[in-house]
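re the bet — no i am not wrong, look at it urself. input seq straight from the record:
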Amino acid sequence: MTDVQALVYSSALTLVMLLSASMLRSKGWTPGGLKIAFGNRDTAVEGSALAGRADRAAKNMLEAMVMFVAVVAAARFAGRGADAAPGATVFFWARVVYWGVYLAGVPYVRTAVWFVGVAGIVMVARAAL
């Protein structure tokens, strides 16, 4: 996978995570939940534990994407996109696993996988320098 592919796939993963969290929180598969999902959400919706984990995972992904986009851009600007590809690939796959582990509610594995994703960001940053 190239660094750009990993960036695009990570962006798509972020969107899927955000949409999933929203649907889980609002119970968008039900008629009442669909109305909430398409509404202004002026009133808070109490979600399940799974919905809370999905929401926290999605927010964490947004935070990680800020750093990931910055280092991929730096690597590209430095003309080292090919060198950044392994780290970008590690980041993407770690975030896929992270999402699943977070949704499953596995605390220590989740943190370990999070560190693997951070290692991917560091690999990309080192390639950019």
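see?? The chain has one domain: 3-128. told u. also The mean pLDDT is 92. so pay up
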